[in-house]
Amino acid sequence: MAARISVPATAKKGDTVEIRIAIQHPMETGFRFDVNGRAIPKNVINRVTCRFGGEEIFRAELGSGIAANPFLDFFAAVEESGTFEFEWVDDAGVRGAETAKIVVS
Amino acid sequence: MGGRRWRAGRRDREDRRQLKRLLALAFLAGTALAADRPTPLKSGVEFTGADARALQADEFANPGMLWVARGEKLWSEPAGVSGKSCADCHGDAVKSMKGVAARAVNLDGRIENCRTEQQQARAFEPESQGLLSLSAYVAFQSRGMPISIPGTADVQASVQRGREIYHRRMGQLNLSCSQCHDDHWGRKLAAETVSQGHPNGFPAYRLSWESVGSLARRIRACYSGIRAEMPEYGSPDLQDLQAYLAWRAQGLAMESPGVRR
Questions:
Q1: Which chain A residue shows the shortest CA-CA distance from B71?
Q2: What pLDDT does residue A1 have?
């Protein structure tokens, strides 16, 4: 699973920054059938979390209504330098993780 | 008598003018056949919607960039008996692959060739994630560069064969590519706007695929649309068509990974 995170490299203390993450995933709904007529099991990323300095700052619970390759966008106020640590898991139990650093002055 | 002569003279002049007009028309028709491509050239993205255009232009939000990112990793991963990666021979793709996709008429074939001949690895399958990622990564290095294919005899012969296929009616709907993409581009086909059929966004992220796909896959979708038998991936027909499409789109800027509907 490839993923990309967009976080500004630097920010001023107290700034609100935009954080974006795109994850490559088929987000299989469970409602489709393969060419032999068998149901394709549901497999979506069901949880995405973001931690900053060990503390959870963002959590999203996704379902089968989210399109493939989900793209999430949120804002956070930053007080100190640190690392955004993203983690996610899909219905098949496959986990992914990606990090992005920010320097706050 | 004088009057009649005058009238005859006028008729001669008229005839000559008529002839000139006909010749001009014939000349124009001749150049149109020689040019044989839509004017002005418009990229496929112009026939999508504002949302797809915005998605393509945003280098982060463009979902095709996920494949580019994966291709970047693959570029330096060793593969096959040789234990070599793409980077071991080609170095930094940002430099060595710049413009390659704008000149190539069969990028996938060349990647597969490198893989089997140089890396001595098993070929990727057509439309496999590995091949799509690598081709998207290589094509991305040509973003903004105009398509310009080589004038070599084999490429031009392929273009000629492709031109013939492009104008051949086929399928249960008995349509040629040209009848939609030359004669009716910009008009509606149900909810879709018919494009000019250019390859400059491929490999592209197609929203209906929810994935990046190759130009070959897109052409096969057209075959299916006119209810014709789809050519196999890597078949000569598909390669010739791709060569002709590249010839026809010469001058258009590469925008892979494009976003299409």
A1: A2
A2: 73
Alpha-carbon distance of B19 to B13, in angstroms, equals 10
For the segment B69-111, what is each residue's pLDDT rounded down to a tens digit?
999 999 999 999 999 999 999 999 999 999 999 999 999 999 9
What is the amino acid identity at position B233? Y
CA distance B212 to A96: 21
Residues of A with Cβ-Cβ distance to B60 under 8 angstroms: 4, 6, 20, 22
Whether a cis peptide bond, with omega within 30° of 0, leads into B199 is: no
Domain boundary among B140, B157, B187: B140
Number of domains in chain B: 2
pLDDT for B15-49, tens place per residue? 556 656 555 544 444 444 445 889 999 999 999 99
CATH number at residue B132: 1.10.760.10
Question: Which tokens sit at B244?
Answer: 């002709």
Q: Is residue B222 flagged as an active site residue? A: yes
The verdict on B151 and B125 lying in the same domain is: no
Measured between CA atoms, how close is A53 to chain B, in angstroms?
A: 25
Give which of B55, B66, B68 to mutate to test A binding, by max A Cβ within 10 Å: B66
